[in-house]
Amino acid sequence: MQNVREQVAALNELVAQYRYPEAFDRFYDESLLNYENEQPPMVGLSAERDAMANFLASVADQPHTAELKNVLVADNISVSEWLYDFTHKDWGKRRYTQFTVQRWKDGKVIHQRHHYATS
């Protein structure tokens, strides 16, 4: 089994390449709890898959920019800093920094929270 640092690096490489389905298959637990800022959680990997598919269908300029800036890993927790730049069909042009905090168990993400400005 890979250590958490190696798993985080491999996951982030898939995200940077927009290979979300592969990332979900390899690194996300079926019981995932995923939070967008302070919103109630999406429960389960299938909900995360659906949300990502809906988001990507609404991004007008494919591929969008997902640039990894920094990563911290300690114990079974990772924090990845991303720069996202895209145009959404409903929201318009978006460019923001996002921090994704993930808790890992048995090689899978079990809890994830995305932090970013909403205005």
TrEMBL record:
InterPro entries: NTF2-like_dom_sf (IPR032710), SnoaL_5 (IPR046860)
Gene3D superfamilies documented for this protein: 3.10.450.50
Domain SnoaL-like: 9-116
Segments crossing the lipid bilayer: none
Pfam families: SnoaL_5
Protein name from the UniProt record: SnoaL-like domain-containing protein
Species for this entry: Fibrisoma limi BUZ 3
